[in-house]
Protein: N-acetyltransferase domain-containing protein
Amino acid sequence: MENRCEVGPTGELSLFTDQLGDPICRVRHSPAYLMLVAEMVVVGGGEDKERREIVGIIRGCVKTVTCGTKLSRNSKNCPFKLPIYTKVAYILGLRVSPSHRRMGIGMKLVRGMEKWCGENGAEYSYMATENDNLASVELFTHKCGYSKFRTPSILVQPVFEHRVKSDKRVAVIKLAAADAEALYRRRFSATEFFPRDIDAVLKNKLNLGTFLAVPKGSPYAAAAGSWPGADEFLASQPESWAVLSVWNSKDVYTLEVRGASRVRRALARTTRAVDRALPWLRLPSVPEVFRPFGFHFLYGIGGEGPKAARMVRSLCGVAHNLAKEHGCGVVAAEVAGRDPLRLGIPHWERLSCAEDLWCIKRLGEEYSDGCVGDWTKSPPGLSIFVDPREF
Structure:
């Protein structure tokens, strides 16, 4: 089914997914998940035997995330934001066989998945698609009652043959999972879509680590790996700092770009050969994306201070070199379109998506998310937390 359903404009370069034999790989690590399959009975064969043919699939998962904030006070002069959580369903991987489209199969699959999500307590359902995927946008917004919600940017950077040089003005510290959890909960739990089970994400075997960048001369850089704890760090934080985590999507599924001309393939091979032969020149090279390739996903990107974007760039360099060691083709990240840290994430415009479209729908009638009201009508914030289990 995946091979029959290309992703991308017809007649141009298309992206294909190899799920490595696990059709639920992209939802398996969520707290609750399901895959639905649409079948049709086909009569054929020498004895008019009946057989079933898969003509459509859809996947979904349910989790608890931050949908808004409320002000609280631990003292009269120190207000702070507390997260408001809601159960949300994520619908992905809707595929309908090209020979069975315009028959209502996609609609039935979406409705069936929404029913299961509602039974599992989801108050909202959302999905992501390309802005120019008119068929998907039409199905969800005009027929299934979804509304356009957020437009984050997917930023993709090739993994070169050479290693990226580290910034000598920045020190990078790798945090233990428990320390990373404390920092994320203390500083980022009010971020939209922050998963309440962040501990499960950080302790997952696919998580390759959380990295913190601080100025080279700060006391934390000279602490020789002694982490003071999130509360102490945030109470006396350096002027600028940044953090991100790395998820090993390479062991979940691989991608492949199809439809490239021989000229494009030859040019890509040439750039890699030159980069491999002359690594000291640090020439940007096109990775081997015309065969199945894996990638690492950067998530939990955050920071503070006037030089936070520079800190993020340094962390992306560390992530690039880690991806090179793992044999990945690209490194990807997804951030809110207005996120100021976006400027620190290296990427190629040709490989990236300036506006990924998230659509959302309210499944329940009652409001359990209090002062947020109807989340589907809330304005976007500066940042968003993208769960690596769903990318």
The longest strand covers residues 49-73. The first helix runs from residue 105 to 119. The domain at 14-390 is CATH 3.40.630 (Aminopeptidase). DSSP finds seven helices and 14 strands in the chain.
